[in-house]
Amino acid sequence: MDEDDSAGAPPKRKRARGVIIYASVAVLAATGGVGTTLLVRHVTADPVAPIATPTASMNDGAVYNKVEPGVVDISADLQYLDETAEGTGFVINAADGLILTNNHVIDGATSVTVTPVMTGKTYSATVVGYDLPDDIAVLQVRGIAGLHAVDTGDSDDLAVGTSVIALGNEAGQGGAPTAAPGVISSTGRSIVASDQSSGLTETLHGMLQTSADIRPGDSGGPLANARGQVIGINTAAGSGGSGMAFAGYAIPINTAMTIAVQIASGHAGPSIQLGLPAFLGVLLPDSGNTNPEQQAPDQQNPSDGNGAGDGINNGGINNGGINSPSCVTQETGTDNEAPASIAPASSGALVDGVVCGTAAQAAGLEAGDVITSFAGHSVSSANALSKLLNHDRPGTKGLLTWVGMEGDSHSQVVILGTGPAR
């Protein structure tokens, strides 16, 4: 940055010490503060040689001042994990209150709040929808005056060496976003990254690689060019390959906006979930087997009864003798075992566990029960129940039937709750 640009320059940050290579995502906080990161595990070979020298000068302070009014801090309430996740987003439509961020920032959330950095006031946000495999989410706040949308550029027109600056809610600290200058060092990258806290692993293609020092909490924040146009969404960080010890990764804004427009238009798709999903609150084996006894060995990769993992899984739940307690949380137990007993049913969905505070718990379901129908639809397997619930919305009412441990039949009208984003 030129010396005469120092006035009004963004807050500076120090680079990470040593050679710790992490992906930058949200920051989780329980009683104290616990960081969660996406670790970049694999990067494709460089399509072009990385470059560390910018092709043009950049007025960091001017760019920061242009982009900052559109930045928001995001706090996701992970109700079933008793934690919150802090990340970043930015306004893409001020009139409609639409905010763009990463899906992994809200992964596991049952509710979300946003805080525009210019006002410091916190507002409840609606999850309009998200695309899990492309790691994009759209939030909405209504009735808020003074929102500022960022300007977006053309990420297809980026060249290696383009100067950029990444803004974000580093470490979930809130307030004025910190900034990290850098350059585009490569384009079209494919990465495999994993969230060490939730176990989420994702493969992302067509990513922008940058030397900007992206940190935990920056995820969902804007990556801007010298004109103050947002050309990417800060998403991950890790090894850059080809001798680079560090690299940040961003989703190109053209890709993100295409998905965001589809979500905002209310067009669901194979990978797009509109709103938060319905939630029964049972942990299920990831199994299409119709025999509950055979489903039990498949329970190492469970779902929440909605067809996809939501951060609540059996990896940390002791299902051996799970009838006491009658409901579970992520922190309950350490073993990954099947229920001690399984109801004598020839087909249906085996219940591996019941999440506390859900419709399933209120109905009296227990681990080892076998669900046989919901809302007039027969259930042949755990996967069949997941697919069935995927078509429902929170608030859906239906008669749930299941077989208990003694072979007795049970039925109860349940109202599906609001499930965590995932």
What structural keywords apply?
422 residues; mainly beta; 6-stranded antiparallel barrel; elongated
Please describe what this structure looks like.
- The structure is a single chain.
- This protein has six helices and 26 strands.
- The longest helix is centred in the middle third of the chain and has 12 residues, at 253-264.
- The protein has a six-stranded antiparallel barrel with strand order 4-5-6-9-8-7. A six-stranded antiparallel β-barrel has the order 11-12-13-16-15-14. Strands 20, 22, 23, 24 and 25 form a five-stranded antiparallel sheet that branches.
- The protein has helices spanning 60-67, 103-106, 253-264, 292-295, 359-363, 382-390, and strands at residues 27-29, 34-35, 38-43, 71-78, 83-93, 98-101, 111-116, 123-131, 136-140, 151-152, 163-168, 178-195, 201-210, 222-225, 229-238, 247-252, 272-274, 278-279, 282-283, 349-350, 353-354, 370-374, 377-378, 397-403, 409-415, 417-418.
- It is mainly β and 422 residues long.
- Strand 5 (83-93) and strand 6 (98-101) form a beta hairpin.
- The model is unreliable at 1-7, 12-26, 28-37, 47-52, 306-324 and 330-335 (pLDDT under 50).
Provide the β-strand percentage band: 25-35%
The global form is elongated
What is the distance, rounded to the nearest whole angstrom, between the alpha carbons of the first and last residues?
A: 40 Å
How large is the radius of gyration? Answer: 23 Å
